[in-house]
Amino acid sequence: MTRTRIKICGLTREEDVRTAVEAGADALGFVFYPGSPRFVPAARAASLASALPAFVSAVGLFVNAKTADVAETSRQVRLSLLQFHGNETPGQCHEAAVASNLPFIRVFRVRTDTTADDLLQCERIYRDASPFFKGLLLDTFTDAYGGAGKVFNWSLVSKEIGPRVVLSGGLSAQNVAGAIAQLRPFAVDINSGVEAARGIKDAGKIHAFIQAVRKADERI
Questions:
Q1: Which ranges constitute the DSSP H helices of 7-66?
Q2: Which residues contact 13 (CB under 8 A, 6 or more apart)?
Q3: Averaged pLDDT for residues 72-99
Q4: Is 9 a catalytic residue?
Q5: What is the pLDDT of residue 196?
Q6: Of these residues, 9, 16, 93, 189, which one is catalytic?
């Protein structure tokens, strides 16, 4: 059976961390962008991440952060993976990854005029630029940094790149099975789709989403 990995992003509360872990999430995301309503300071994230068991990863989301700040936050929180969501160049991502000694994923914000070749070209550029690069996370473009809870055109994701990407953008318990059947992504990432309010997760939605992913995996 194919096993789609699951990341729950934007955690700010202990009870939401516990729920995500108990429900079976593979990774939890902590937002270190002060402009986000889901922002958590490093000390707070370190406290939240300290409750994670073995094999559940802590992922740090950064937007145009200084290399020294990324490295210090990574050390303090004991992150497992970096996620760059701003205008960082391949070189800047590599520099921060080296300073933190951590792998990274790069967010590609899909626009209405994005093509399938754009995704492949971006992946090649980052792979050539850094051995720390582990893949693209595909999200829907918005003027602001961070997801808008909107689905982009999944037909842009070719069969070649689909199994290597992390899929995000407007996912929910209602549509994730279709996404998995169509794209077979390596992982899915959800934030607003499992929230009761910004930064406040809904336990029922988390369980429903993860159950929907697992049922979709059984059908593949």
A1: 14-23, 42-49
A2: 48, 199, 200, 201
A3: 98
A4: yes
A5: 96
A6: 9
